[in-house]
Design goal:
Aspartate Aminotransferase, domain 1; four-stranded mixed beta sheet; 16% strand
Length: 433
């Protein structure tokens, strides 16, 4: 008897009432083909789809679930908060506690404001930078994603230091006219942009480890020069750590760069994902004189009905308490490295071009012999082989990002057995290829 595929049934229903059948584009499996998995429940390192098939989950809600799904301490905190009230539209003690906990982990910030999404946080940080400097232009890098605010939906055109052209319909040209898009890790373009526009630049916004072109690090020399040029020209360096914040290290990615660049720190930081533990919560922060530009103290307006939501802050506080325990990041990093090393070894044995990288609980891999340094190179990867790998892993109960340009995430709940099972599954697929 043929088994009914409830994932397909739900997807067919969803496409009648939700554009593309999904509420975020990458969930649609458009890049890899096939039917998205509709999750019915999750626990630890696993989720079960609508057919009740179990998967090892290496997405973890795209990063927030650093403890795994349903961690007892987090569940208890959320249940308690729910009984106290869903939302108040007024200050709470937990907002203050979470702000204090974030600042203790990211010392480059003196003050922080809580919001509900990474898009909102990035958009607001740029507004503060513009308000504080009195300048309009800013630099972003191709392949770095900072949310879907109009001025950020831009990729590079041709030539050096090209002004951006919107990559989404519905974004007027005049909205992105102040957005300058450069190639990631390209020092020459960076230098030329500051020579040409330096005194007009409010900020650079950058993902220190880009997670939306899989996993690509900004090189230490490139990041050092970003900091130097911003200081020289009076622009702000804004770190988008929505993905990397408290995910790659206790002090986030900026602490990783500080190991190699003495005294390094950004002027502003954007956070999300891990700080909310899976609830809609994000934040942006920076030096006191910058954050005091915000209303009600200053002229830069920003507000949000659900900002600092009492249930979300409870979830975030419980998550931060757990990941702050001794040895947490060491163990997380060890497991992530074991996965990447295992995949590289399996691919190499099968003669498949393959490389990978990781930091803390974030990882990526590419069907290249060497790690790429920018978006253009990432997009030349072998789509066909990746699709074989994705669907082969899916059939074997391993869930990775359904697109070659998304990073992966390890959680504390993943076991060595989960990693061994994943590597063995990948080895089977590589050998078949």
């Amino acid at each position: 008897m043929t088994q009914v595929d409830r994932n397909q049934i739900l997807f067919d229903r969803a496409r009648q009432v939700i554009p593309g059948g999904v509420n975020s584009p990458v969930r649609a499996f458009k890049a890899v083909g096939g039917t998205p998995r509709f999750v019915q429940r999750a626990q630890g390192a696993y989720f079960w789809d609508a057919n009740d098939k179990k998967y090892i989950d290496f997405i973890g809600s795209w990063g927030p679930m650093i403890l795994g799904h349903g961690h007892p301490a987090v569940v208890e905190a959320v249940q308690k908060a729910l009984l106290e009230g869903f939302s108040f539209g007024a200050p709470t003690e937990r907002e203050v506690e979470l702000a204090e906990a974030i600042l203790a982990r990211v010392p480059s910030m003196d003050m922080v404001r809580l919001v509900s999404s990474g898009t909102e946080a990035s958009m607001s940080a740029i507004r503060v930078a513009r308000g504080a400097t009195g300048r309009s232009k800013f630099i972003k890098f191709e392949g770095c994603y900072h949310g879907h605010a109009d001025s950020l939906l831009v990729k590079a055109g041709s030539g050096l230091a090209t002004f951006g052209h919107a990559t989404s319909a519905g974004v007027p040209a005049e909205v992105v006219q102040h957005t300058i898009v450069l190639e990631y890790n390209n020092l020459q373009q960076l230098e030329e942009a500051f020579v040409t526009h330096g005194r007009e630049l409010a900020c650079i916004i950058i993902e220190p480890i880009a997670g939306n072109m899989n996993f690509v690090r900004a090189s230490v020399p490139f990041m050092k020069r970003c900091r130097e040029l911003c200081t020289e020209y009076g622009a702000l360096l804004v770190f988008d750590e929505v993905m990397t914040g408290l995910r790659v290290a206790f002090g986030s990615a900026q602490s990783v760069y500080a190991r190699d660049i003495p005294g390094f720190e950004p002027d502003m930081t954007v956070l999300g994902k891990v700080i909310g533990g899976g609830m809609p919560l994000a934040a942006f922060g920076g030096k006191r004189h910058l954050m005091e530009q915000l209303a009600p103290l200053g002229p830069v307006y920003q507000a949000g009905t659900l900002s600092g939501n009492p249930v979300a802050t409870a979830c975030g506080l419980a998550t931060l308490a757990e990941i702050g325990k001794p040895g947490f990041y060491e163990d997380l990093g060890r497991k992530t490295q074991a996965l990447v090393s295992g995949l590289i070894a399996a691919a190499t044995k099968a003669g498949i071009p393959f490389c990978g990288d990781s930091e803390g609980g974030m990882f990526g891999f590419f069907l290249f012999p060497e790690l790429p340094q920018n978006y253009a190179k990432v997009m030349t990867t072998d789509n066909k082989t990746f699709n074989h790998l994705f669907h082969g892993l899916l059939e074997r109960g391993v869930y990775i990002a359904p697109a070659l340009y998304e990073a992966g995430f390890m959680s504390a709940a993943h076991t060595d057995a989960d990693i061994a099972e994943t590597v063995a599954a990948a080895a089977d697929i590589f050998n078949a290829l």
